């Protein structure tokens, strides 16, 4: 028996060393721009595809009615606000997978994915209790009654199908955490195509399906999430992964690993929740002005969301590489990868910011509908684009440094940064802009100040190096 145990340990160490060498050989120049792009590019395509899907979905709704366009962003953001804590919790499996990948521990990679799956299932059940809470918030937000009815419908369908994207993200961590991001890209693009096709069909009706408007958009998003999750299930539980990672063998809940995932992931989830709560409050406060201001702001929010999904991909790549090199004991390369990621984000945001400032109509005018309201909505939206052009540069870099902190396990401080900048900067300045200046323009200026503060605090925390002392995995 001692001989067998020793032999197993030697073999296990050999496998770990082999995986570590594979990590090095795949990376090329460790921490370089090329390596970041190799990991980020499929994520960028994936997230850009998801954003384009939502963009097209909202464009369909804009052409359906101005009330639907006004309702989709508040209803969607409110659902995402309730979902984001659980999403942050489940998504944090990426950091565990990346560090175990750096250590070459295949069994713990599979265990991490399974714990994320169990957390996703539990979270999908728990989140259903937020439906009456969401109805209450929408009913007391002071929005136009016709818009509020549509907000509730959109919110309901996004919430009732929430378990699907949670499960999809848990499965995706198996690939994203190891930097094999092309698999998640393929799965997400499949889901995006399904969602766009069903959105057109369900919103406007046809081929035996009744016209459903905003309800159809919500149902179509559920079908898209189902398609993405189904493809990921096929990928993750392939014969190759069952043989190499024994992914089907480590399904049992592991209390110790779930405990650590909840401990670190909860802080990450709360950080996401605070950010989304701030933006949700921002949208609802603007809604108290008038329907024109809300619709124009929602157009800018949609463009902002579309623009930043690629940066989210860069941030996720930074999280993955920071975690992997920490697992390999190379904190210097982790730091290098984060700064290279920030450089890429700055370049992208600068280019897009110039386009937003000098050519706002290219982005805004496609939201134009046939309703008379759009004669007022579109000029106001074009004015807001100038503010967005300056805000997005600092926001993009802040996202990268925040994700880099998450990759190092520094989730508590990232949470505190989100709390401080939201509670003491974003919400008070937005409230003042709405109640004293009665201006959606000044509300978006408040957003610009908020993202600047968030960026500075995240950057200073990362530069301090405190994340290097945190032990995320054993």
Overall description:
This protein is an all-alpha fold and 474 residues long. The chain has one domain (27-469). The chain is 83% helix and 0% strand. Residues 1-12 and 24-28 have low confidence and may be disordered.
Quaternary structure of the protein: single chain
Secondary-structure-based class equals mainly alpha
Tally of contiguous helical segments: 18
* Percentage beta strand: under 5%
The biggest sheet amounts to:
none
Stretches where pLDDT falls below 50 for ≥5 residues?
1-12, 24-28
Average of pLDDT: 84
The total tally of domains equals: 1
SSE succession = HHHHHHHHHHHHHHHHHH
Task: List strands and helices in order, with pairings.
Layout: H1 2-27, H2 33-64, H3 66-91, H4 93-103, H5 106-126, H6 130-139, H7 145-160, H8 163-176, H9 182-204, H10 214-236, H11 239-244, H12 255-287, H13 291-327, H14 331-358, H15 360-364, H16 374-407, H17 411-435, H18 440-464
Helix pairs in contact: 2-3, 2-9, 2-13, 2-14, 3-5, 3-7, 3-8, 3-12, 3-13, 4-5, 4-8, 4-13, 5-8, 6-7, 7-10, 8-10, 9-10, 12-13, 12-17, 13-14, 13-16, 14-16, 16-18, 17-18
């Amino acid at each position: 028996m001692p001989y067998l145990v020793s032999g197993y340990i030697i073999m296990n160490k050999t496998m770990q060393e082999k995986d570590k060498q594979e990590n090095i050989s795949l990376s090329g120049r460790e921490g370089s721009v090329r390596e970041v792009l190799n990991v980020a590019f499929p994520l960028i395509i994936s997230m850009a595809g998801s954003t384009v899907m939502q963009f097209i979905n909202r464009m369909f709704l804009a052409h359906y009615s101005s009330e639907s366009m006004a309702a989709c962003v508040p209803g969607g953001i409110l659902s995402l606000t309730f979902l984001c804590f659980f999403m942050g919790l489940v998504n944090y499996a990426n950091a565990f997978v990346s560090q175990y990948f750096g250590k070459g521990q295949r069994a713990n990679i599979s265990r991490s994915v399974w714990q994320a799956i169990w957390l996703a299932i539990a979270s999908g059940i728990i989140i259903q209790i937020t439906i009456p809470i969401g109805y209450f918030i929408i009913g007391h937000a002071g929005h136009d009654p016709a818009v509020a009815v549509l907000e509730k419908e959109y919110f309901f369908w996004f919430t009732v199908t929430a378990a699907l994207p949670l499960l999809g993200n848990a499965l995706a961590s198996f690939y994203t955490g190891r930097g094999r991001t092309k698999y998640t890209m393929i799965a997400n693009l499949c889901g995006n195509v399904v969602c766009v096709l069903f959105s057109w069909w369900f919103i406007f009706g046809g081929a035996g399906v009744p016209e459903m408007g905003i309800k159809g958009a919500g149902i179509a998003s559920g079908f898209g999430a189902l398609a993405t999750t189904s493809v990921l299930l096929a990928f993750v539980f392939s014969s190759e992964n069952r043989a190499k990672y024994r992914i089907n063998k480590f399904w049992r809940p592991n209390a110790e690993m779930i405990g650590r995932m909840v401990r670190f992931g909860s802080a990450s989830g709360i950080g996401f929740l605070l950010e989304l709560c701030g933006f949700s409050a921002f949208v609802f406060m603007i809604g108290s002005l008038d329907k024109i201001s809300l619709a124009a702001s929602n157009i800018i929010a949609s463009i902002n969301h579309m623009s930043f999904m690629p940066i989210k991909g860069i941030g996720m790549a930074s999280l993955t590489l920071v975690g992997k090199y920490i697992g390999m004991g190379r904190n210097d390369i982790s730091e290098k990868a984060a700064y290279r990621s920030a450089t890429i984000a700055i370049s992208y945001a600068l280019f897009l910011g110039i386009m937003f400032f000098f050519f706002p109509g290219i982005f805004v005018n496609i939201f134009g509908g046939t309703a008379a309201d759009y004669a007022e909505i579109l000029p106001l939206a074009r004015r807001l684009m100038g503010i967005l052009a300056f805000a997005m540069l600092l926001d993009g870099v802040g996202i990268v440094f925040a994700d880099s902190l998450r990759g190092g396990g520094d989730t508590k401080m990232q949470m505190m940064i989100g709390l401080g900048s939201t509670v003491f900067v974003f919400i008070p300045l937005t409230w003042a802009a709405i109640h004293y200046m009665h201006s959606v323009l000044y509300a978006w200026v408040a957003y610009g100040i908020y993202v600047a503060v968030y960026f500075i605090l995240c950057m200073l925390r990362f530069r301090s190096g405190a994340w290097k002392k945190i032990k995320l995995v054993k």
